[in-house]
Fold this protein.
Amino acid sequence: MNYSFDFSFLRDYWPMLAEGLVLTVQLALMATVLGFLLGTACAVASTSRSRILRGLVGLYVEIIRNTPLLVQLFVVFFGLSSLGLKFSATTSAVIGLTINIGAYSSEIIRAGIESIHRGQVEAGDCLALSRWQVLAAIVLPTAIEKVYPALASQYVLLMLGTSIASQISAEELTAAASRIQSDTFRPFEVFLVVAALYIALSFLMRGMFWALGQFAFTRRRRLGTPL
Amino acid sequence: MSPIVSFRDVHKSFGAVPVLKGVSFEIPKGQVVALIGRSGSGKSTALRCIDRLETIDRGSITVCGHAVSDPNINLRKLRQDVGIVFQSYNLFPHLTVEQNITLAPRWVKKADRRKAHELARDVLAQVGLLEKIDAYPEQLSGGQQQRVAIARSLAMHPQVMLFDEVTSALDPELTGEVLKVIEELAKQGMTMLLVTHEMAFAARIADRIIFMHQGLIHESGSREILRSPSTPELKNFVGAGL
Ligand SMILES: Nc1ncnc2c1ncn2[C@@H]1O[C@H](COP(=O)(O)OP(=O)(O)O)[C@@H](O)[C@H]1O
Ligand SMILES: [Mg+2]
């Protein structure tokens, strides 16, 4: 084996990689924020008294957890266009990724809500707080704090999962890499560089989640307890 | 003047198990009533019915003019008039002592930040924990947490305070500080219902003792009934308790 590495393609193609990287970050960021909101709403619905709401959320979560992300993206992408709705590949990718991560977020946050002692809710009720106030001030903050590390890991996985959006021709990092390697015939080098970029992004995201946790969970910061 | 709390022939079952079998009593304004009895006799259930944490099957309950047994009751109005403290303190772990206390005044009574802060200082001074205003619950001892829980209830300026075995989870050396706070409240004329196993304490501060047995009020009267019970059940209970 004597393979000689050639990274010279970087000189000409780095703007394309950079564009792909930016889109990857955008996809991950939007799907994380929207998926968190969707997941929170679904987790609340799945712990509500309404059997219909609980059933609907259960159905949604089961469908998402038992189908491949790629298939979900295809269904959204081709489904929307056959309904006559014209969305760009990027928008379809955001919608598909949000629906996907929303289901996983919902399950994680629901576990957090269910771990909260009933006495906490009762204490809120006895202080004359409304049901929504109990949810907003007591249940959700403590539940999300408990499951924060699990959520953060899930969102890092989601960021890696955005590479599948290349299959519906969203020009993110992996799609850019595919085009570069078909131009340059240096697939090994191209994907090594792309792998390094994904690793860097993962570490960056973990760092950001750590900082966000320090900011959001004042008690942990003040008492120095790890999340 | 109408009583703060009144029970009329209250019945309550959990499934097929009757827990309250026709309980009637009243708590006039400013009185301290101690509810005693064996474990399982229905004391906690009776107390929880006052704040409509449990609904009753038959009879009626009136609290501060609210018809508690009315299905259309405004629960949030009722609960602003009733303070309640449980055995497990149930402080909110992610909030500081001050935030625990000011949450309801700010969100329910729309107190502004400064007024809420003053309020927190007032009630903390009352339970002797002003220096812990910025602490988190996990930094406090059980006795201190329970005193904060009492302060949190007091911050809503309730008409009546309910205590359900608030010292039962505490080490013996920590019960004193909590009982002292309750005794202080009694002196200030707070209307209170006290479920307790501390017989000596009940005898000292209660205006009236109610002894529950198998879902019924078996004997009641002044603190004298603890010294000279007239039913064998209370005699038995007091004998075992002291
Ligand atoms: N939520 C509930 N569901 C079913 N049974 C209950 C519930 N709460 C209390 N009980 C039963 O009701 C009886 C009275 O309980 P409780 O009022 O807690 O008594 P006490 O406070 O005097 O110990 C007990 O037998 C208890 O097991
Ligand atoms: Mg009890």
Notes: The first helix of chain A runs from residue 9 to 46. The pocket of magnesium ion (ligand 2) is lined by residues B 43-44, 165 (CB under 6 Å).
